[in-house]
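User: Predict the structure for this protein chain, please.
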Amino acid sequence: MIISFSNQKGGVGKTTTTVNLGVYLALHGKKVLIVDIDPQSNLTSGLGYKEKVNERDENAKGEIKKHPTIYNILIDKATISQSFLATRFKNLFLVPSSIDLAGAEIELVSMMNREGLLKKVLDKVKSQYDFILIDCPPSLGLLTINAFSASDKIIIPVQCEYYALEGLGQLVETINLVKNNLNNSLELAGVVMTMYDSRTKLSEQVVNEVREYFGEKVFKTVIPRNVRLSEAPSYGKPIEEYDNTCTGAKAYKEFASEILRRV
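Assistant: Here is the predicted structure, written as structure tokens:
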């Protein structure tokens, strides 16, 4: 199953959710591939592989080459197997991103089947994995459309803050456009509430508003605002590795269990 994590608003916990869900699904014994298609490559650095991607190796001919990323797969036609990185977690693999991807949307415009390039790549390997998780950029451009075209389901992380519903209508409309024109099997798997602060009435109000808007599509698990969750990416570690006893870790463990029950 291929799941994209998308929200055009930045800072909603999209990357944190993708990486930590991937870790806990892998710990459940599922074989998981995480694909980072955000030019900011926060997921790649959050797993501790940004330096690896930027390393320059000199081959026998004296040529300098970097580890292939999703950019090289989409634009330079590198094979996806060349970009795989085995993580420190059994069953968890990464296709990294890099800043090179920032110009990809312009380069993709002139390509044939530009909305389906990622699907063509992932179709070759999806039978090898129980889950492929795609971390989308905070926009609704060609990279996100590629992710939607390749996916079976979409999960929308929504921050428990004011203006949480702003832009969600446009996102749902984009999902429906892709479903009607490019990928008729695409479904909204659900909405996960993130950065919930139990000390404020605002968080509770936002959760209620989102539940009213999306109904049963909202996951029961709510991810709390948690300092340890915020700190972990700066150490290049998912929360299981950084502090698996904190409330954030417990929430993502429960979220993984809920995904396995529902999706």
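The longest strand covers residues 187-196.
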